[in-house]
Amino acid sequence: MMTASAVSVPGTLRDRFLFTPRSQNLSLPRSPQASRPACPPKGGQAGRPYLVPWFLLFLLSGLVLFHPNLFAAGKIKIVATTPVIASLVREVVQDTAEVYAVSSPKRDIHFYAPTPKDVLKVKKADVFVHTGLDLEAWRPPLVEAAGNGKFLGSGKTAIDMSQGISLLEIPQSLSRSQGDIHIYGNPHYWTDPENAKIMVQNIVHGLAKLYPNQEALFLNYAEEFNKRIDVKMKEWNSKMAPYKGQPIVTYHKSWPYFAKRFGLDIAGYLEPIPGIPPTAKHIAELIKLMKEKQVKVIVREAFHETRTPAKAARETGATVVTLLQNVGAAEGVEDYFSMTDYNVNQLVQALNH
Ligand SMILES: [Zn+2]
Predict the structure, then answer these.
(1) 267 and 188 in a common domain
(2) pTM for this entry
(3) How far does the centroid of ligand 1 lie from the alpha carbon of residue 50, in Å?
(4) 290-315, pLDDT tens digit by residue?
(5) pLDDT of 33 above 60
(6) C-alpha 166 to ligand 1 mean position (Å)
(7) Same structural domain, 177 and 203
(8) Which residues pair with 298 in a beta bridge?
(9) 12 CA distance to ligand 1 middle (Å)
(10) In which domain, by residue range, is 154 found?
(11) Distance in Å, CA 70 to ligand 1 centroid
(12) HSE-up (13 A, CA, CB side) for residue 348
């Protein structure tokens, strides 16, 4: 096994990772956790719970105070809000830390409801890594319920993965007129493999401040990850190249970063606005648009209902394809590479139909 002392840190490598994330020209606060939106999220939409009541999380945390074997002894304890973030953290820390993912890969991250185990994991964690923005609307109450001083308020050991990401779809003003989610810009940035490299930078940057004696090791593992991404990007670009400019429709606004990276044109969405279920009127208009633009592919995720995509496909001749937003969302998809392989291969197959 590699040790910190066995790894040299070339200056350029160090500079590449331990950067100070550049500031964004945002008129909105970057971290809803540090600075809450002026208008709190509304209640459930169409029967979906939007926020877990705080009192419930406090109650749950009290019920699991004596939960055994939460983390292995002697390792850094890291909690990540999503499986894909946990996967990227594991790339950087390898076996030097124990990493726990809060949300389920089978569920819509926006609407996940933390469990008592999640609360206690955050309570006991050394480091908390999250998507930032408003992807995890349940994150602030989860952190509050866990009461871990390292992450509360201006907590120093929380890592915001959105730092340094060039965000898409940033609204002109802080408003919920376009829905209750994506109010700081589109938070699904991890679907672009080049953004995964920035996320890994953020992990290294955050961990190096806390564990400077392991900095060289983290840098080395991160560099290995970047090299693998660069190799795979050639393959993914080559597979997607024949479909540049092809119009697609997606269920939720989950794919703008992926589409931009690989040159796809997103013509419309099944959801009228993010987080709001499709309506008959909206779908009728979308079907008309799909026919005009000759859209051949509808992208959904496994947790979306199938009836609406099937109807739109039936009326337009398009193919419905299920893509993955998370590691673990399909069998054999165990890391960032297999997730992106899966998405590229499924999409190519559908576009070629
Ligand atoms: Zn979303």
Answers:
(1) no
(2) 0.82
(3) 13
(4) 999 999 999 999 999 999 999 999 99
(5) no
(6) 16
(7) yes
(8) 249, 320
(9) 36
(10) 30-36+43-233
(11) 30
(12) 15
